[in-house]
Amino acid sequence: MSEFVEFELDGKCVRLPIIEGTAGERAIDISTLRDQTGYITLDSGYGNTGSCESQITFIDGEKGILRYRGIPIEELAEKSSFVETAYLLMHGHLPTMIELTHFSKQLTENELIHEDMKYHFEGFPSNAHPMAILSSMINASGCFQPQVLAAHNRKTFDVQAARLLSQVRTIAAFAYRKSRGLPAIYPKPIYKYSANFLHMMFSEPYCDYELKPEVVRALDLIFLLHADHEQNCSTSTVRMVASSRASLFASTAAGVCALWGPLHGGANQAVLEMLEKIHEDGDDGSQFIVAAKDKKSKARLMGFGHRVYKNYDPRARIIKKRCDELLAALKIEDPLLDIARNLEEAALTDPYFIERKLYPNVDFYSGIIMRAIGIPVEMFTVIFAIGRMPGWIANYRETIEDRSGRIYRPRQVYQGEPLVHYVPISKRG
Ligand code: CMC
Nearest 10 degrees: CA dihedral of 416, 417, 419, 424? Predict the structure, then answer.
C-alpha cells in the first residue's frame, strides 16, 4: 500500500508520496510540491536530494556498505576482475562464460583508436594535464563513431560502450606518452585489460615492459574498486548531460572534467602531493594534523572524509591491505606509507575527526599503490577515470532508457537585484 506524508503549508494540506528503495531507504517524492504549493526545496550541495531511482549501486554510508548490482564490494574485490565487474555494472548481471568471452573479445577488437586521432594528440602542449587530454579525446573519438551520435539502439550501444571502455585506456596511455614526449605504444591483443594498459604506458618500441602479476592484479583491483559509486559529482554530471540526450562520448567526457577536481577524483593526486610535502618538511604527520584541524590554515587532510560515508570507506579497507601486500612483494619501503599510517592513526583517535565522522576514503592509500607501480602522480586521476568508466556507461544507459525521464533541470532561489533598469554608459558612475 502506498504511503504518504501530509503537512500543512500556507493553510493548505500537502500530500506527497513516500518512495521506498529495495534496501529500505525512504524518500519523499517532492515532484508535485511546486504544483501543489508554489514552493520548491532548497538543498545546496544536494546532501538531501535523490536525483534518480537507480538499480546499479547501493551505498549505506553509515554502515560502510558498498554493493554493485547487489554484490558486496569485498566479494568482487576477492573473486572478480575489472572486466567482469564492468560487465556486471553495464549489463546488470554477472556474465556467463560465453558472455564474458564475447565481451573480452569486443574489448580486444576495439582497443585501437582511429589512426587519425593521433593528429589530435599532437595539438596539445607537451605539459598538458592528461585529464584535459583524456576528456577532449573521448569527446573527439565520438566524432569517429557517428552511429553513436545518432538514434539510440541497444545493440549499437553495446558495441559503442565496449569500444569506449576499451579505448579509454588506450587514450589515457597515449596521453601520458604524449605528456612525456614519448612515442605511442600500441595495444597488444594477447594482453588482458589491465596488463595491456601497463604495456601501453611503460613499454618502449625497442623493449617490452615486464608485467609482474602482483602489479597487474593491484592495478586491476584499483580499477574495480573505482568502477561505480552511485550519484557522486562526476556520475551526476554524466546523467545530467545524458538527460539532454547528448551522446555517450559527450556525457562521459563531461564526467572526466567533473572528476578532475581535487575534492573528487583529483583527491588521489592531492593525497600524494600532501604526503610528499609532509615528508619534505621533515614532519611525521603530527604537525599536519594540527593544521588540517585549523580552519584558518586551509589545509585539509586529503583522502579523509566523504559526503556519504560516515564510517570507514569499505574500498579504503581493501586497498590498504593490498597496498601492504604489494609493497612487501616488491620489497619497497616507502616513507610516505609510514606518514600515511601515522596520519590515519592520529585522525582516528582525534576528537575533531571522530565528531565529524571523517574516515579514510578510497584515495588515501591508492596513490601509494600507484606510486609503487611507477604511475606518475599526474596520471592518478586518469586511472580513477578509466576505472569509473563502466559506472558512467551504466548510469548513462539507465538515464537514456528511462522513458519517463525528463531533462535534468534544477531550480534556484534567486537572491540578486529584484528589478533594475538599463543605464546608458554615459550615465554610469
Ligand atoms: N580534513 C579536515 N577537515 C575536514 C575534511 C578533511 N579532509 N573533510 C571534511 N572536514 C570538515 C569540514 O571542514 C567541516 O568542518 P565544520 O563542520 O567544522 O565546518 C566538516 O568536516 C564537514 O565537511 P564538509 O566539507 O561540509 O563535507 P562534505 O560532505 O561537503 O565534503 C569531502 C566531503 C570529501 C569533499 C570532504 O570531506 C573533503 O574535502 N575531503 C578531502 C578531499 C577528498 O579526500 N576527497 C575524495 C572523496 S572520495 C573519492 C570521491 O568520491 O571522489
Answer: -120
What does the pLDDT look like over 21-35, one tens digit per residue? 999 999 999 999 999
Mutation choice for ligand 1 from 57, 271, 300, 313, CB with most ligand atoms inside 8 A: 300
Q: Which residues line ligand 1 (CB under 6 A)?
A: 45, 229, 232, 263-265, 267, 292, 300-307, 356, 358, 361-363
pLDDT in tens, 188-212: 999 999 999 999 999 999 999 999 9
Catalytic annotation present for 363: yes
Assigned C-alpha cell, 122: 599532437
Judging by beta carbons within 10 Å of its beta carbon (0-12, 13-18, 19+), is residue 3 exposed, middle or buried?
exposed
- pLDDT tens track for 360-373: 999 888 988 999 99
Taking the complete model, does pTM exceed 0.90, yes or no?
yes
